[in-house]
Amino acid sequence: MKTFDVVVVGAGAAGLIAAGRAAELGGNVLLLEKMERAGRKLLITGKGRCNITNVAPQSDFFQHIYPEGKFLKNAFSAFFSQDMIQLLQKNGLETVTERGGRVFPVTNKSADVVNALVKWVKRNNVTIEYGQRVQRLIIKDGALTGLIVGTKNLTREILAKNVILCTGGKSYPATGSEGDGYRFAAAAGHTIETPRPALVPLETEGNKARRLQGLSLKNVRAAVWVNGKKFKDEFGEMLFTHFGLTGPIILTLSRFVVEELLKKNKVEISVDLKPALDEVKLDNRLIRDLDENGKRKIDNIFRMWLPASLIPLFLEELRIDGNKEAHQMTGKERKSIQLLMKDLRFTVTGYRPFKEAIITAGGVITDEIDAKTMESKLVKNLYFAGEVIDLDADTGGFNLQIAFSTGWLAATSCMARL
After folding, report:
1. Could you give the CA distance from residue 211 to residue 308 in angstroms, rounded to a whole number?
2. Is residue 323 within 8 Å of residue 297, measured between CB atoms?
3. pLDDT at 310
4. Which of 138, 159, 204, 337 has a CB 3.0–4.6 Å from the CB of 244, allowing a cystine?
5. Single residue among 351, 379, 402 that ends a domain in this structure
6. For position 83, which CATH number holds?
């Protein structure tokens, strides 16, 4: 029976890089993918544009990665953002860097990223088998020797000198990310930090968010409050939906919200609609506008301050008659407007399921993985790369770079041993 130098499980971001790199170094490589094509999850990243990576320095990357970004120091040293950009260029795909250092394909098509990586993998003579579901790993005397592939009724054994698990997390399960890697790792004796949705929309109490459905706010600040204490905040863009809140800053904050909700803590999101103005400056602005437009109705004055869809909510929350004239507004009413503009609050009741989460937090704990090689510390010849590891990051290209870098290092380490 043929023995492969490296078998890579999963043809996503980490798997494609791992397979291509191992073959580039001369390995006889088999890439197994249970779906019918490669890169299913890659195709939907960045709203179909694929935010490949970020040009921020390593020190900035570490600040965006949880729970411990420094674990990736060796992986980033081996293969980082510029290396990824150059790899794509060599395979015919140019990139463009946008606001926040985010890197996208110049074509704005994630399919072009997948095609470039598959082209590279095939050029390096990787054997790719689609529709192949791994059932279990074969481990003898503390070392991995192969795996069992197929259906429950019809299986076959594949011998391997090394196996790299690139099975992804549990988010977007329709793309094939169903948590298989956690099951394999646990069976091998690894500790799994409970997988949970991350970069996920939040559900809120009542109908306040539903009334604002479709409203997008830019240049606002959202803060997480836990049991009455401010926890963390983000500045940028957010969006109201029929179930609650989403958008870039909400997704970034969601990792912490989910953790606190799992602890049964009370979690609120406070939105500062005027972050550029402190309380005094905002109050002066309100006074000036009211004085200069004394005969205008209050609901018309509000149009100077807020998006139209927010006005009915404000008038109702503050119990202000929108038909009365500006000069009739009391100081107490004006103060209440100022306070609500600086603290529009929503009670978080939950979060959307894995099928709506961009990534998964949790996974194989890093204490049981050699940071210098990505090899298991418990089972020889078993390596991990990508989302299966207990590492996740903010939006902005950071998560894909984790996958690319760990896949590259795992493959390089396999071949160095051989």
Report:
1. 12
2. yes
3. 96
4. 204
5. 351
6. 3.50.50.60
Give the range of the structural domain holding residue 262, as residue numbers without chain letter. 201-351
Q: What is the pTM of this model?
A: 0.93
- Assess contact for 85 and 95: CB atoms under 8 A: yes
218 and 192 assigned to the same domain = no
- Is the residue at 163 inside a domain? yes
Separation CA 128–CA 9 (nearest Å): 10
Which of 329, 351, 373 lies at the terminal end of a domain, its last residue?
A: 351
Beta bridge partners of 346: 269
Three-state secondary-structure class, residue 275: coil
Contact 202, 348 (CB under 8 A): yes
Q: How far is CA 58 from CA 71, 77, 78, 82, 407, in A?
A: 12, 9, 12, 11, 17
260 in the same domain as 281: yes
Cβ–Cβ < 8 Å for 408, 75 = yes
**What pLDDT score was predicted for residue 174?**
85
CATH classification at residue 239 = 1.10.8.100
Number of independent structural domains in the chain: 2
The predicted pLDDT at position 151 comes to: 78
DSSP assignment of 227-253: TTEEEEEEEEEEEE-SSEEESHHHHHH
The answer to whether the beta carbons of residues 301 and 291 sit under 8 Å apart is no
Name the one residue in this structure whose structure tokens are 């971001």: 13
Q: Which residues contact 86 (CB under 8 A, 6 or more apart)?
A: none
Q: What is the pLDDT of residue 343?
A: 98
* DSSP per residue, 151-220: -SSSEEEEEES-EEE----SSSGGGT-SSHHHHHHHHTT--EEEEEEES--EEESSSHHHHTTT-EEEEE
Please tell me whether the peptide bond between 67 and the residue prior to it is cis, using omega within 30 degrees of 0.
yes
Taking the chain (418 residues) in runs of 10, the rounded mean pLDDT of each run is 94 98 98 96 92 97 96 98 98 97 97 98 97 96 96 90 97 89 97 96 97 97 98 97 97 96 98 96 95 92 95 95 92 96 98 96 98 98 98 96 98 95
pLDDT at 248: 94
pLDDT for residue 153: 81
- Other CB atoms within a 10 A radius of the CB of residue 55 amount to 17
